[in-house]
Write a structure and sequence with these properties.
This protein has four helices and four strands; from the N terminus they run ββαβααβα. The protein is an alpha+beta fold. The chain has a single domain, classed as 3-Layer(aba) Sandwich (Rossmann fold), CATH 3.40.50. Strands 1-2 form a two-stranded antiparallel sheet. A two-stranded parallel ribbon has the order 3-4. Strand 1 and strand 2 form a beta hairpin. InterPro entries: P-loop_NTPase, Rab_GTPases_membrane_traffic, Small_GTP-bd, Small_GTPase.
Length: 114
């Protein structure tokens, strides 16, 4: 998957879902995880009701950025913002570089959902 395109800057999408009979509009901002885009992407945290911190289970370098992403999310959103840690590419188990257990421990130690 080395040729998968990476987000450059920010990508945006909307989706309407129904929860308990009520329609909810989601605005999803996919911010680039690379350090060079950090100044741009930090501005998109403002007003967020939730943050999905996604790392690639086959690339430890993405997992190693979680602490700085979490610091940004906590400093730039309100205290009630829900933060969820997600490991993607779970279908590539044979190439896994970050264990489920260590990611779960990170989530527990930092008070985020996993």
């Amino acid at each position: 998957m080395a040729d998968c395109p990476h987000t450059i800057g920010v990508e945006f999408g909307t989706r309407i879902i129904e929860v308990s009979g009520q329609k909810i509009k989601l605005q999803i901002w996919d911010t680039a995880g690379q350090e060079r885009f950090r100044a741009v992407t930090r501005s998109y945290y403002r007003g967020a009701a939730g943050a999905l911190m996604v790392y690639d289970i086959t690339r430890r370098s993405t997992y190693n950025h979680l602490s700085s992403w979490l610091t940004d999310a906590r400093n730039l959103t309100n205290p009630n913002t829900v933060i969820i840690l997600i490991g993607n590419k779970a279908d590539l188990e044979a190439q896994r570089d970050v264990t489920y257990e260590e990611a779960k421990q990170f989530a527990e130690e930092n008070g985020v959902f996993f």
